Each structure stands twice: as C-alpha cells, then as structure tokens.
Amino acid sequence: MISIRQAFLAMVIGLGSVAFLLPSMVQSAPYQRPPEAESFSLAELDSEPICPEVDPVWRERQVIDGIAVEASPLCSPDNPADIAAFVKGTNNVSHDTIMETQLSMDAVIKGKDRDGDGDPDVIHVRLEVAELNGFSPDTPEPIPAYSIAPGVQPGLWVFAPKTRGMSTLNFESMQANYYLRAPSPAIRVEQGDTIKVTLENTHYLPHTIHFHGIDHPFLDEKGEGNDGVPQTSELPLMPGESRTYEMTPRHAGTMLYHCHVQPHAHIGMGLIGMMVVEENRPNNWVQTLNVGGGQVRYPSVAVKETYDREYDLLYQSVDQSLADKIKIANDARLIAQAINRDYNITQEPTNYFLLNGRSYPYTLRESLVVVEPNEQVKLRMANAGQDPIYVHSHGHKMTITDYDGAPHNPEAWITRDVYSLGPAQRIDLALNTTIDGLHSYGEGIWLMHDHTERAVTTDGINPGGGVTNIVYESFLSEKGLPLAKGVDLKPYFSKQFYQREVPVWASFDQENLFGDVNKAPAQLQIQPVLVSFGVGLLLGGLVIGVRLIRTFRRRPKEV
Fold this sequence. Notes:
By secondary structure, this protein is α+β, with helices and mostly antiparallel strands. The protein is 18% helix and 23% strand. Strands 13, 14, 15, 17, 19, 20, 21 and 23 form an eight-stranded mixed sheet that branches. It is globular, with a radius of gyration of 32 Å.
C-alpha cells in the first residue's frame, strides 16, 4: 500500500513543478490591454431640478397682517404666511392668511399683554407626533415620504405644529406636507412669558416632552409631573392622549426639547428640536416656530439690537438600522419590540448626518448662511446627534458668545474656526463679516461642515452629510443657489449617485479616466497553468508508480 507520506511527497512534487514552471510561462504570456471603461453620460442621470420652482414672491420682504417678514434669498424659502401666523398667532391673523397655511386654528395661540409692554405674554403651542417614511400595507413606497437627500428616505419621527388637512401634499402625492419634516421645529418664546406646550400624541407609541435647559417647575399647578421623565415625573403619554406642559422661563438662551421615553431610540428617530428663550423687550412679537430651522425671518427685538441676521443650525445623526425598523410592519407591537428590545445602540454605526433635517446637496436649498460684508450675524448651533461634532467654517473665524444657554464672560469670548459640541450641547456664535483677514477673508462661497470626515458623507458617499456654505449675496443666483466655480452639481441631485452608481468625478472627467471598468470577463491565460498542472501530475504519478513497482518486487512469492 502507498503510505500517507508517499502521497504527500507526490503532492509536494506536483506543486513544486507548478511553482517552478509557472513564472516562466507567465513571463512568456503576450501583453493584454486593460479592459475599456464603460461609457457614461450625465444625460443618463435621473436628476432632480437643483432648485425646485417656488413662488418668487416668497423670497421678497413683505408685510402680512402688520408683520414685516424679512426677505429670504434661499432656493426654498419659508412660506411668508406661516411666518406671520407664527409671529402674531394663528388666533390673531386674518382668515386669508390662515388659509395660505395648513396650520390648525389653535396651533399657536397668543393671549393677553399682562405687563402692558406691547406684546403677548401668554403663549400656547400645540404639537403633534408624526412619522415619516413609515410602512403602509397599501403601497411599497414609504409614506408620507420625506427625503434627506436624493432617493434617501430613512424612517423618522418628529414633533410637528398642529395642522389641518392631509399629511401628504395632496391626494396624488406621497410626499409629506411642509410641516412634517425634520428637525422638530425650533420653538421661540420670550423670557418671563407664561408658556404652555400641549403634546397631542397622534402616534402609535408612548411619548413625552422634556424641556432641556429651560427653566421649568418639576410639577405644574395641578401637581402633575412637568419634567417629561417617565421614571420620575409622569407616566408616558399614550396614543390618543394629550398633556400640557407649563413654564415661565426666567433666563434667556438656546435650549432643546425632546422626548424622554426610551430616549436612546426616540431622540435618534428625530424627536428633538431647538427651543430658544428670547430676552425680554417691549413690543417683542416673537416668531414662535421656525419650521426646518435655518433663517429666522422675524428676529426678536433683542437680536436686532446687535445682529443683522439670525440662523438656527441643528445637527443630527441617523442610524439606518434603527430608522428602518418602522418599515417592517404597521403593527405597533412589532415596532415597539424591534426598536426598544431588538435594537442595540451600542453595536450600531451612524449612517446619515443632517443639518436642519437634510443632507448635502439639499442643504444648499434651505440651510445656506447668506451674508453681506460688514454684518453681524447670529448663529444658534445645537448638536442633536449621538456623537461629538466639530464644525469648521472656511474663510471665517467666529466668536462663541454663549454655551448651553448661558452667556459667556465677554472677556473670555473665544474666536476660532472649529466649534466642538458634544451631544445635546449648544453654542451661540457671532459671525462678523468685516473683511479684515481674521473675521472674514473676503466675499465668496465658503464651506461650513463637521470636520469629522464620515459626517461629510451620506451612508459613506461623499459629498453628503450636514455640509453647507457661508455665501455672500454677490455669489448667489436669483434663485438662491451659490454661483460655484467647481464641479457640476447635477450628479449630486440624482438618486443614482447615492446608490453608488455614478463615478464620482463624472462631471469633469472628459477622458473617462476614472470611469467604471467594463464588466465583461477578462481572457485568462489558462494554458500555461494547465501545462504546469499536468507536468506536476505526471511527476507525481511517476513517483507513485516507482513506489508500486518496488512494493510488488519485495513481496514473497507464493509456495
């Protein structure tokens, strides 16, 4: 019999033959041209309009029901009728104005002027809970649909102003209406006013509101919990129930509000927004809600004493594995189990990075910081994500005036070009556009972004994330888009780009040097390998044959 050792020896000889002969055969193989790159044309992309058409009147400064709404040069400006209703109260504007909105008549109620200083001192805001990009048994598409970038629709929950009518734009559209969007709207109130916020839980899971950093009593006047924490303050608000939170904030500053039921998941799903307590001034009619954040088109009296413009900037992060759990069913029990028990936040990454509810390139439509030379601009910045952010401003160094809703000592103000915020932290920034080489380098289109490199991607595709620009009006088109000198933006407004189907430099790679390699199978040089393998087998077989002959010769002959 052939021993294991003999068989192993044959194998070694065979492989050695291949190793010995293959290099010479490869060297002798003829040169082959690399495969051609696949052809690609921007015309093949299903690109959206970079700036959708809106009524150009919306961008103009105008007076509605006595409220002077500031101009907005942005591609997607707020509806001026909404601004008037948020400033004056849905109970105080004309019927024509309210009909230009989709707000409920009791969305923002403004009451009497108790101190006689010319502005209302009792404010009542009503919020609902809305789901975006959820599951429906009637359609394969998410509904109501809300895109953070072209073709990118993670599941989200948001607080939303109380509205009338449909959650979609109309009967024919799956798109969410204007108010159902991330982030939850910025709420602005005045220092010393009596504030009531009623949460009407229109969702299928329990929720509360916690007012983060805002001066509020632990119990309300009825002795009920008023802090929003289920373990200490109150029972969660069940579907169909409502609760009113009450407070009279004594200190101004930039704060937050968020759900405190299973906060590791509910905040990550989007139930968080900015809340601003404005300094008390006479005749201070405050823009109570800023849907989507960005430009404040009716700044407070105190802000206008120092600043020419004001912007709200809320950064968020989204974990796709959490967000997509609301797409598995429309059974609340299954979703509750998937989100609160099956999901493990300690094991999951973050995929999407948002600024004011959108990722690049949609941030160009809504969240540009538009300025002119020699201005003072106020930026309120908050981190609603689960990781630290490090926002870097190109072309400018801004001054941090407030931390976490408290004024910083002016003698210790910090001027820098990277602004770090941990989760739930806020800073107020003074942007000085004096062109002196320190505060501003000059007019242009200056990038502003989180310098954590994954935060400038959308699920790993760059450019994406919460990227925006500080743009001088001289570099802005009539439609509110930056007059960029760089690459064509068209590929970024196609869902194919964020589905990894587009070469990243396609817009200027005229020679197709970096296009996709043709997928046709390459012609392999099989013959030399087969010859080497055959030689190895012959040599191995020869060894085995010799061993067999010797074995038979040594056997004793039969008697």
